[in-house]
Amino acid sequence: MDAGSFIRRKYRIWQQVQTAVELIYPPRCLGCGNLTESDFGLCGSCWRDTPFIGGAVCDSCGAPVPGNADGHRIECDDCLKTPRPWRDGRAALLYQARARSLVLSLKHGDRPELARPASRWMAQAGRALFRPDMLIAPVPLHWSRLIKRRYNQSALLAQHLGRETGLDVCPDLLERRVRTPVLDGKTAAERAETLSGVISPHAKRKRKMQGRDVLLVDDVMTSGATLAACTQACATAGANHIFVLVLARVAKDA
Ligand SMILES: [Zn+2]
Ligand SMILES: [Zn+2]
Asked: Rg for the chain (alpha carbons), in Å?
């Protein structure tokens, strides 16, 4: 049995287990807790309150842009002003309304079960990014934060995304050696300054990404400074093209 069919078989078994679990525990809406039929885990009303990104998007950061996609590269004003070090980026949701509360529940609310449906939305939004033999890696969390929160929400998203896409995941490809202060409220330049040299490739994982395309995964993109620092670390370690995929993008209304 080759590696591909082994993984597919494992995945089928895993899906069967999931189906059995769903028969015992009927699906509830992730937003409000009501019973739902939806495969995506949201009832109709929460679905309408969740700003999924569709239509034309910025190829660099995934933010919605006015107009229609015509096959040419599109970039939003932010990315034209601050070119991104990565190749392409996508986001599943706008960080607003119910999307904001879902992201916060995943991050601080001890609700790791949100990662599975979230990774499906990301697989859908990021379908233009996936490449054969791509390596998926999460934005790292400092160990002290990991202890406090019990899990790294980005690593959870990365793991589920690996299941959705069949691509390899390396949860500790990058590491955050220094604990950085919370970046909220800082300007883009301050964020970049705070993050320079903070994220580095894990010494034992460097070889894994050499010559390979890497997909960086995070829950939220605000200025993009953290993802830029991760991109830098991967490029230094010899990765080929680097892409980013996030659950939610903080962006102005489009
Ligand atoms: Zn609901
Ligand atoms: Zn953009």
From this structure: 18
Rounded (to 5) percent helix, strand, coil in the chain = 40, 15, 45
Our CA dihedral for 150, 155, 157, 159, rounded to 10 degrees, sits at -110
pTM equals 0.86
How far, in Å, from the CA of 98 to the mean position of ligand 1?
Answer: 10
Neighbours of ion ligand 2 (CB under 5 A): 58, 60-61, 63, 76, 79
Neighbours of 19 (CB within 10 A): 9
Structure tokens at 87: 């190749």
Q: CA–CA separation, 61 vs 221, rounded Å? A: 8
State the burial class of residue 62 (Cβ atoms within 10 Å of its Cβ: 0-12, 13-18, 19+). Answer: buried
Number of the ligand closest to the Cα of 44: 1
pLDDT digits (tens, 9 = 90+) for 196-225: 778 999 999 999 999 999 999 999 999 899
How far, in Å, CA of 118 to CA of 161, rounded? 9
